[in-house]
Amino acid sequence: MQNVAVKAVPTAAVERGSKSSVVETDKLSLTFQTADGPVYALSNVNLTIEQGDFVSFIGPSGCGKTTLMRVIADLEQPTEGSITVNKVSPREARLDRAYGYVFQAPALYPWRQVDRNVTLPLEIMGLSKAEQQERAARYLEMVNLTGFEKKYPWQLSGGMQQRVSIARALSFEPDLLLMDEPFGALDEITRDHLNEQLLRLWEKTQKTVVFVTHSIPEAVFLSSKIVVMSPRPGRIIDVIDCNLPPDRTLDARETPEFLEIAHRVREGLRAGHSYDD
Amino acid sequence: MTTEVADAADVPAVQRPGVVSRLMSGKAGPVGLMLLLILVIWYAGAVYLNAPRLIDGYERSDTEWTFSQLTDDAWAMERPILPAPHQVLVELNKTIFGKKITSKRSLIYHSWVTISSTLLGFVLGTSLGMLLAVGIVHVKALDKSLMPWVIASQTIPILAIAPMIIVVLGAIGLTGLVPKSIISMYLCFFPVTIGMVKGLRSPDPLQLDLMRTYSSSTSQVFWKLRWPSSVPFLFASLKVAIAISLVGAIVGELPTGAQAGIGARLLVGSYYGQTIQIWSALVMASILAGLLVALVGVAEKFVLRRMGVAQTGGAG
After folding, report:
1. What average pLDDT does this structure show over A229-254?
2. Residue A101 to residues A81, A170, A185, B18, B166: CA-CA distances in angstroms?
3. Which of A56, A211, B53, B92 lies at a CB distance of 3.0 to 4.6 Å from A219, suitable for a disulfide?
4. Which domain holds residue B65?
5. What residues of chain B score a pLDDT lower than 70?
6. What kind and span of H or E run contains A71?
7. A92 contacts chain B (CB < 8 A)
8. Do the Cβ atoms of B209 and A101 come within 8 Å?
9. What secondary structure does DSSP assign to A204-230, as a single string?
10. What is the pLDDT of residue B258?
11. Residue A164 pLDDT more than 90?
12. What is the C-alpha to C-alpha distance for residues A53 and A177, in angstroms, rounded to an integer?
């Protein structure tokens, strides 16, 4: 059961030619000390994420997928093992502003209009006013929110707010995008729509995306690689390559290839048998 | 109200709401009704409290008296136990509009003396309160060491410490405006500190994590997140602070036998048994307090609107 994880790094490097690894973990573990005793959030995680990958972490609630993402982002510190992001420590990567993070909730600042929410990271990074405006316009257009620049967050629907937060993460043009259940709180129709938009965006920008979800169709539809996790302690039980044809639309979810991969993911989740306690 | 609802139920057809319920649905109706009630109780109280002395007088001079004469006299005494509302109004009118603003008998002049130290104390207290809050939120040692003292400072009765402050500051040559302002400051920094600490800590974890992912500096986190988050809390505190700042200024005028200010009017009035003067000073003080709080309220509305915070209605 222990880490069926990931193929060896050198092989991967040869296979993918010029592609280099963005995230590498080795025997990564994280234990939270709580009043009720230790909680093993992550155990012995070995994972390699390569440049240009769209990697989904899938698993039931509490399996540590968000924690793993937060470790990559240097928002949590691992208790054992090692991790590098862009070949350096997560902390250095964070100080380099190597990644954009999209949270479960939009986390917009309510006193800022939409465009000023998007320019928030740009202000912090000290870009010129003109550059800020140009980028806000560009990335709001990318998420189909042109015309909403001067609205306040509370004037937008939940789906639109989440799109603003995606535009905000894209605006400073990080090569790595960390998305933690970004569409979790949305209705299915909005979610489908945003899935398609995100896929187009990924194809267009060739960014590396790490995506947390507990929806099997979402993971299979979007990913080039699916990491199946199980809880208590959080560990990787399967890594599934998933190369559905590019330019796919939502109809791809009806194809045999899609169903086969979805089946394998479901099998993996079942093997994690988190439901027997 | 309940009977009206019952009526409406009996006749479910086209029934216009009654006059009373229409009046009470607004803001003016209930407020007016309350005011009326207070006036009735006040007039009745004036008769009740002033009657014994009047009846004493009638009996001594063997005058025949009727109840209507008693009420007329009770509402027109020169030094009543409790003056009637219209007597206070007349006195207010006389001392506000009947005197030159520079006159020592003008209530406007006295109000200005009190207001100026109130405002200075408010500015000082708000600055001190904010400074303490910023320190407490950012420095762990200050959080542990300062907070208990901040709370302890408010357990000392202000009436007890006010004369000490005046005396000590007087000894180092500070008199007049400044000592009174310091008493105001002493009272009003507290709600500002408490509110600001709460406000500066109010951003949710995601909003803070977001700042961390941008590897932003502490001052960027402060100006772009903590400070704007704290503004609604700050205004709630400022409303309390300005009202007690006025209390502080008046209290500061009492122990020194100040020559001017609302507090001085109260003091002089009580020396000479001028109850009408005392009451008009009291009414003036509450009018001032109301105005000051309303002023902060207007500023709050303006600032929050500029910050795009929705005042009414949900998402459009």
Report:
1. 85
2. 23, 9, 17, 59, 57
3. A56
4. 2-82
5. 1-17, 256-258, 310-316
6. helix A65-72
7. no
8. yes
9. HH--EEEEEES-HHHHHHH-SEEEEEE
10. 67
11. yes
12. 10
Cβ atoms A208, A177 nearer than 8 A: yes
CA dihedral B140, B144, B146, B152 (to 10 degrees): 160
**B70-76: which pairs have CB atoms within 8 A and are 24 or more residues apart?**
B71/B47, B74/B46, B74/B47, B74/B50, B75/B43, B75/B46, B75/B47
Contact of A121 with chain B, judged by CB distance below 8 Å, is answered with yes
CB A218: neighbour CB atoms within 10 A? 22
Q: What is the pLDDT of residue A185?
A: 78
Q: Which residues of A touch B210 (CB under 8 A)?
A: 101, 103, 107
What is the per-residue pLDDT for B314?
36
Nearest-CA distance from B299 to chain A in Å?
Answer: 16
Where in chain A do CATH 3.40.50.300 domains reside?
9-98+176-271
Q: What is the pLDDT of residues B85-143, one digit of tens each?
A: 999 999 999 888 888 877 788 889 999 999 999 999 999 999 999 999 999 999 999 88
Is B245 within the bounds of a domain? yes
Interface contact flag, B210 A103, Cβ < 8 Å: yes
Residue A112 near chain B (CB below 8 Å): yes
Q: Total structural domains in chain B?
A: 2
Question: Is B315 in Cβ contact with A154 (below 8 Å)?
Answer: yes
> Cβ–Cβ of B216/A94 closer than 8 Å?
no
- Among residues A48, A40, A41, the alpha carbon closest in space to that of A16 is found at A48
CATH class, domain A9-98+176-271, is alpha beta
Tens-place pLDDT, residues B243-277: 999 999 999 888 766 678 898 888 888 888 889 99
Q: Which residues of A touch B204 (CB under 8 A)?
A: 107
